[in-house]
């Protein structure tokens, strides 16, 4: 572990003034990576005590401070009642102990769980640009089937981010110098392309201060995570859905997916394929076909294609069951 | 002080003894662990939790290739890290050893035999500096092509191993080929299991101090068998065994990975001696996936030929396993097959391939854990082919005597385990047709398998001392690896000497104490407790002599000695000086004249998600017959752990191998999956009454591994019953079920 300095910021403005430093809050991912020599920051700024730990109602939605712990967010009344898919996603992630430490902002910025990323002796373009991708042709059971590149097939591991993406969340940030901006969560994470070492579109020093949820979408919400054991396992695939059925037709559909790609995945064409359709298996399979057009397995993860198709169809059945379908 | 020795060699079946009278009611009582409060309050120091003054910290440098030579090292950058004390190059001594000391080839650090092999240790004033510097050591490798990583590819070069798990690795009775070829019903199935890693909660760790004046090493480390390891370490260091004081009073799990000397102790000892400064090291979780040893991968072909009524005519279990070059230990996957079921014509064979992977060693129930997974899956396949209930098939193949050796069984209650277990579980509700029971999205199935684990007794000694205060002290280098050794030894001594638990002190895991069997092979309880029995009975002889009466006229109860109408405190009977006896138990002729096996039956209910293939085990019921149960609470804990680990092997556990590089890539507990609490089902454990005096004078059998010896197969068979999909490539992960699930 490289020596590093640790300072505690008294305000968000003070935090972003520390140019060249990394932010640390719960440390549930960054500390592990530092111990393994994968992240080697010389300076850390502790942001865990910044006054960014409130969940507030805002314009019919919620503003969630970036330092709100995952456990608190999952247990929050307004989250449970208005955004149940987010509560489900949070509770499906990690373990109780990790959720107590992990924060909203940190969850968004957690790094991939690709095996090759975690062993500094193995090639990984994300960790060591230009060294190659160990997972291509290697052990890739947990890897991406959409949006990959020949440089990287890693997935983003967050459940929370998938749920928030389905909810059209926005991310508020503060930049060095004091400028703020709001960007759609859909624009936070990147595909690997030729630069898999860059996970997000945040600028250097940019600090996530809050996640803003618009008013809850109409219809029924659910989060379905498929994993290898009942707890403490990352998603093989996951589906976040908010589906409204009216007059026997799907009136609106929001769908986001985890375990598929380098970022939480959302494809408007899938939702468009559903809107206006009768909520039946033909429509659900059609949506799955749209989603999976272009999906490509790497050998070990080929099963994710049929698994996702089956899971999506079943999730849509569940989300529309009992409506006039 | 009066001191005597006594030895019991198991040359004949034993009769009743004082422990049977159990005046204190300790044996058979579900007592809490003696050391439990220390452990749960953090006052039981483990190997890394000793803090000698001026201690330095070690961190290993491990190989980043799987096969090749080391041309040289460059320490300059490492030595420049502030706080670094030295880089320790232990040369040929840098070796992981299996439990059997003599046959291990030297590994050294001038060539690389597997990825993650320990090469050097950096020592620094802080752990963080040692780790940082270790990353800066440059190793100049000359990698070699042709790494041997894939078991199936090495099959043609595999050889018959020599290690004596059986009299020989291959056994042949009757005419298997002929009988199988003409059998009316045949099953021919090949099962594969991957490499697995012990992943004990407490990593391999050591704190070593060198006394230059005495030429003596004091080392706190984490081991299952103290005496053997101390001898191995002495040999490595080139000093006499009595110049090593090794202590492992508390061990956070071993499961076979701590049977033999491991590199953390070698490196800590070498460094402490060289630096004249205490050195401690804990191997990291990631590094253990290249150091702790592994359970071999396997390819097992099982053939069963049967009559239409289910009686087995021919049974073959042929296993291919792997180890490092030159190692003789092999995973005896067919170890239960010679004795489990009847059949005139039998074939059990093992072949071992040399591979460029980490050493293979014992891992909980070496042999049975993966062998019973295969054999009991094949029995289920036979039952399905025959259209016969799987319980009934097993009952129809109950042998009267050991079908391989011809010897009688000491005890065998497998049939009762099966029938009573079936009744308790509600087995009659099982639908023979797979996929016939559905609850919403979940397909529900039931499965059964036998549990079978060979029973062993290993030479073991213990010293028991009666103090003038009327209390007892038990001393042995035996270990408690979470199993309950402290507790059961005190229970036996208490019932023999008439003392309550709190009047008995137990000291374990210290190389200066009498040499024991240690904890391994499920022999720890039988061996250790028998030695305490022998010692305690010898003490009673001493007291009888002091009192001038015959021992059989003495009764010991509640700290009192009673003879005729006279009662005196035990303290008075002991007198002013302590009385001491060292008892030793040894295996003997009855281990050859009688086949000794612990049995059980396990029933599983699983639900398989018809959409996703996710498998959730709902219920596990185990009914076991394993001799007398010294402590139902600690025994049950052992069985629970075994059953859940069997589930782990069936459904989750796999050291995921990059076949190009020879790397186990999922080297942490986030990605090396074992069941978490949410996976553990409702489990019911029932012990049948049994008493096996061929096994040892206490009539107990090993229980530590029995649970894992078949529970995975019960679950795999339940998955088949739920879905109709038979997965023979373990673990059964959901991707292997998807194609066979309803659309």
From TrEMBL, chain A:
InterPro entries per UniProt: CO_DH_flav_C (IPR005107), CO_DH_flav_C_dom_sf (IPR036683), Diverse_Substr_Oxidored (IPR051312), FAD-bd_PCMH (IPR016166), FAD-bd_PCMH-like_sf (IPR036318), FAD-bd_PCMH_sub1 (IPR016167), FAD-bd_PCMH_sub2 (IPR016169), Mopterin_DH_FAD-bd (IPR002346)
Key words, A-Z: FAD, Flavoprotein
PROSITE patterns: FAD_PCMH (PS51387)
Single GO term (MF): oxidoreductase activity
Domain FAD-binding PCMH-type: 1-218
Annotated PANTHER family: OXIDOREDUCTASE, XANTHINE DEHYDROGENASE SUBUNIT C-RELATED
The protein's name in its UniProt record: Xanthine dehydrogenase YagS FAD-binding subunit
Organism listed in the record: Sphingomonas jatrophae
UniProtKB/TrEMBL annotation, chain B:
Positions of the Aldehyde oxidase/xanthine dehydrogenase a/b hammerhead domain: 41-145
Transmembrane segments: none
Molecular function as annotated in GO: iron ion binding; oxidoreductase activity
InterPro entries in alphabetical order: Ald_Oxase/Xan_DH_a/b, Ald_Oxase/Xan_DH_a/b_sf, Ald_Oxase/xanthine_DH-like, AldOxase/xan_DH_MoCoBD1, AldOxase/xan_DH_MoCoBD2, AldOxase/xan_DH_Mopterin-bd_sf
Ranges for region Disordered: 1-33
Protein's name in the database: Xanthine dehydrogenase YagR molybdenum-binding subunit
Organism the protein comes from: Sphingomonas jatrophae
